[in-house]
Amino acid sequence: APLRIAVASNFYPTLQTLVAEYPFPVVLSHASSGKLYAQIKQGAPFELFLSADMQKPRKLVELGLAEPSSLAIYARGQLALFAPGIERLTSLQQVFTAQQSPTIAIANPRFAPYGAAAQSFLFKHASKKSDMYKLVMAENVSQALLYVASGNADAGLVAYSQLIDKTDIPSSQFMLLPETDYPAIEQGIVILKNENTEKGKQFYRFIFSAATQSRLTKLGYLIPESSP
Amino acid sequence: MLDIDICVRQGRFQLNIQTCIADTGITAIYGPSGCGKTTLLRAIAGLMPIQTGSIQFRQVCWHGQRDSMPVHRRRLGYVFQENSLLRHLNVAQNLAFAQQRQPQLDTGYQQELIELLGLQELLKRYPTELSLGEQQRVAIACALLSKPQLLLMDEPLASLDSERKQRILQHLKHRSENFNLPILYVSHHLGEIATLADHLLIIEDGALIKQGPVNTVINAMAKPALITVED
Amino acid sequence: MLDIDICVRQGRFQLNIQTCIADTGITAIYGPSGCGKTTLLRAIAGLMPIQTGSIQFRQVCWHGQRDSMPVHRRRLGYVFQENSLLRHLNVAQNLAFAQQRQPQLDTGYQQELIELLGLQELLKRYPTELSLGEQQRVAIACALLSKPQLLLMDEPLASLDSERKQRILQHLKHRSENFNLPILYVSHHLGEIATLADHLLIIEDGALIKQGPVNTVINAMAKPALITVED
Amino acid sequence: MTLTTADMDAIWLTIKLASIVTLILLMIATPLALWLAFTRSHLRVWVSSFVALPLVLPPTVLGFYLLIGMGPEGPLGQLTQTLGIGLLPFTFAGLVIASLFYSLPFVVQPIQQAFEQVGQRPLEVAAIMGASPMKRFISVLLPLSMRGFLSAAILGFAHTVGEFGVILMIGGNIPSETRVLSIHIYDQVEMLNYAQAHSLSALLLLFSFFVLLIVYSMQPVRLTGGARA
Amino acid sequence: MTLTTADMDAIWLTIKLASIVTLILLMIATPLALWLAFTRSHLRVWVSSFVALPLVLPPTVLGFYLLIGMGPEGPLGQLTQTLGIGLLPFTFAGLVIASLFYSLPFVVQPIQQAFEQVGQRPLEVAAIMGASPMKRFISVLLPLSMRGFLSAAILGFAHTVGEFGVILMIGGNIPSETRVLSIHIYDQVEMLNYAQAHSLSALLLLFSFFVLLIVYSMQPVRLTGGARA
Ligand SMILES: Nc1ncnc2c1ncn2[C@@H]1O[C@H](COP(=O)(O)OP(=O)(O)OP(=O)(O)O)[C@@H](O)[C@H]1O
Ligand SMILES: Nc1ncnc2c1ncn2[C@@H]1O[C@H](COP(=O)(O)OP(=O)(O)OP(=O)(O)O)[C@@H](O)[C@H]1O
Ligand code: MOO
Ligand SMILES: [Mg+2]
Ligand SMILES: [Mg+2]
């Protein structure tokens, strides 16, 4: 049977690229981290869980559903500002000067880690009061990007990995935000207690291999300081 | 005068009638089952698509080459052969609905009809809670109350007992004479026709085959057996 | 014998009948509109909830204290006062449906009825494409074809012309005599009853008020006017 | 359980949305159903199919297209901008419009079915009695189709309350404006606040059950179910 | 456009799911609608309300509860485990069961409405002619309710094709097993493959429109619409 991996939506495209070089058959199921967590709790047949945060993998360990020793950060997400209407984007302030009370899209800060990061960045660099801008919350970063791409939002705080290397999005339309301005987006992985654990461990090692980790940096992620 | 010159099709059946009907008194329509009596009444009422032809009532064009007067403007009363009532209204509401053309209910005449037709007990009932004869009586009351200029009746007394039938026939005759109300009356009952009608139309297979004062037509009928058998 | 002893309620109307009806020949049921004739037939057929009482036909219990024979087992024919046909089947299919109790179609008798009732042209038509008289004729054919042991007819000839009526009445009489088929026949037409029926039941206001051989009852009737007016 | 202000906001918004959408839908669906029920035009089949189409599109996909259609480059968006209304996504008005598309087929079908079953005769009777087309429609066709309108209103209202994918897509999850109860409960699930999600769901179920009970109890007399009908 | 294997898998899975669900739903809904249409029990109102309930729950929330109910600790899960079937979530069978809940009200309503409109008379006529209850049901009630069954089948099928939230929750997005077309299209949107999403949606729409056209064209003769009915 192929290896079954549950992956948070924001990491799904990246993981697909990685899996292309993995020699064994792998089946990826993606959804928001919260949904995957609920599914795993109810016995979903996954061997590995790549979450968008640390909280959910940790909880699974506490519930005895995952190998405690396998809990680790596999990547750190980076936040980017995407504002296609602005020429030569260099700071968030341009969004406010270009338009009065612009619509800004972020992922839902209450459960999407990118959303939480985006919100704290906004609070720091703009204002908590929403009369300066109109905040719209998407279910996840892909949807936040869609809000901007369809022109319904003027700017969005999304994942850098979504924008990097995209042929149809010129690099002048987005900018990487300094890592120090928002809480780290630590994405956690665990091996789930399942019959196929051996295959899971193999893929787990693949993720943390030096080659994969260095590819991650090219795909828009930061890599953890220490790997297991 | 009611001038009719119409051709109506219904499946393979075809009705071709060209005639003038008196606009006074009662005109009976007689003919075997399936000959087109109901179709004729429906065409006059404006409920059938007319292929070609025209209908004029008292100089007013009801149906012509170019346009057709909508049914609700024709000032007709029509007792259908079946289901003449609105099933979501009770008897009293049906009677009221029938009088919508008048500015206010004609309570005097309504009371008279309620007695004549024996509807007193039925006013609160819905059509589905009535016997067929009761439904017919209510339908007659509705048709008369709607103050029509022309009354079409398709075997309205088929399910009524003789005693009541006589009283209703008397009333119809009286009403027709005194209120200048022409009535087209379909019946299979030559006895009934003989006592009631002034004129008689005989239809067969979609065509008018005889017409005239009732006695003349009945006497001239080819098959006198029809009358004697029944009466 | 058809032994009936029933009490049926319908709204405020109550039918109380206790009688024995001969299981030979034709029994006419007569009474003013709304007296309960249809209700009686429906109760016999098993289509009405019976409050208390029993019905026995030829020693077989159709309705008793404890149980009731389902309608489809009673081997009845019933010509309803209206809508006796299945509207999703054409005439030929209705005739075939009526013969489901037989192992195979009785084409001989079916052909005879088609001629008698003039249905030849109508076989492919659906009930909504028939005139009312045509519908009644088809319903009579269905009822006769279903090989009933008891035939219930609720004013089956109300919309038919006299000539055809006579032929149908003759056939019913003949069928009843030769096939040991009792017929309960509701009619408002005393003339028709006099020529056709052997027995007569008179109902008024939900109660049986007279019963006996047809001539005896008619002669003894309190209001002879009823007969003379019409005949 | 305790209801937070956010809970109350979401509940109120949901009731408001579903009521407005149901009302508008009944008004749109009635003439449409009327036409579909009585026309002999061969366009009937095409229009019927077209009305049923939103059904097969997954809500999120429908939402995706509505988002694009209502956006600055979309036809609807250009229209609303020309009219000076601005853009509809992330507004309550946008939710209303999206829900109209989404729930239309559920409202048209039962009404059309009811109209078809009424038949011509009652309308003929009323016309003969002097009722104009308008009066026939109001005092004959409508009351005789009550059962269908009831079904339509229930399906339309409930479907809008339960709507999720479309709103998730074009709503933007803005408190008091577009965060309806379905989204709000979903948020609780995603945040792993299962207890709050349970409470809110139970509340929603109880409330809906109660509403349904009332509506079904006041169902009009069955006009055609009588033994002799 | 070119269809990948993944596309084909999703399409085939969707057609399979919707067909199976529609068939089963018609079989479940028919006796239920029969009872609802003809019973005089006061339970009627309660059962009606209960059947309509899944409507108001947001699909993902319904999915969440189905997930728990079918899980190892849920009542349904315990049942399936005792029966040796194993657990249903993340399997095709699980999708079928979930869709049944989700689409039931849309199938029951039109059939019930149709049954109610048939009335007693045709059944009486058939009984008199010797038809047993079974025969009356099959050769009288069913054909006279065809219009309702048609509506029911269309709504049920389409609603299942368009289903998203429930399946996302209990399906687990597993290729060839639970990744139906709605999920697959949404994935394309999520992955920003808008072009592929457009193509697939267009395909879905065209296919559905075509199916609807055919179904509506073969609609049975209107049995009650005749001028004299
Ligand atoms: N559903 C009902 N609710 C209340 N009363 C009813 C209901 N159905 C019938 N009735 C009443 O029962 C009585 C008997 O009705 P039935 O149909 O048996 O009369 P009938 O003798 O057949 O009359 P007709 O000659 O007019 O057909 C009538 O007075 C009628 O008004
Ligand atoms: N929809 C239809 N399609 C085809 N033929 C029809 C349709 N409706 C009626 N007919 C035929 O038209 C003819 C005339 O019908 P109509 O109802 O006018 O007869 P009628 O004279 O009123 O008969 P009856 O005395 O039985 O009521 C009949 O032969 C009937 O079979
Ligand atoms: O994939 Mo997430 O959990 O929407 O950031
Ligand atoms: Mg006629
Ligand atoms: Mg009767």
UniProtKB/TrEMBL annotation, chains B, C:
It comes from the Bacteria. Gene3D superfamilies: P-loop containing nucleotide triphosphate hydrolases. The lineage of its organism: Bacteria, Pseudomonadati, Pseudomonadota, Gammaproteobacteria, Alteromonadales. Residues 1-230 form the ABC transporter domain. It comes from Pseudobowmanella zhangzhouensis. GO terms for molecular function: ATP binding. This is ATP-binding cassette domain-containing protein. It holds the Pfam family ABC_tran. Keywords: ATP-binding, Nucleotide-binding.
UniProtKB/TrEMBL annotation, chains D, E:
The keyword Cytoplasm does not apply. InterPro entries: MetI-like, MetI-like_sf, ModB_ABC. The keyword Cell inner membrane applies. PROSITE patterns: ABC_TM1. It holds the Pfam family BPD_transp_1. It comes from the Bacteria. It is a multi-pass membrane protein. SUPFAM superfamilies: MetI-like. Residues 11-215 form the ABC transmembrane type-1 domain. Keywords: Cell inner membrane, Cell membrane, Membrane, Molybdenum, Transmembrane, Transmembrane helix, Transport. The chain crosses the membrane at residues 12-38, 45-68, 88-108, 194-216. Belongs to the binding-protein-dependent transport system permease family. CysTW subfamily. Part of the binding-protein-dependent transport system for molybdenum; probably responsible for the translocation of the substrate across the membrane. This is Molybdenum transport system permease.
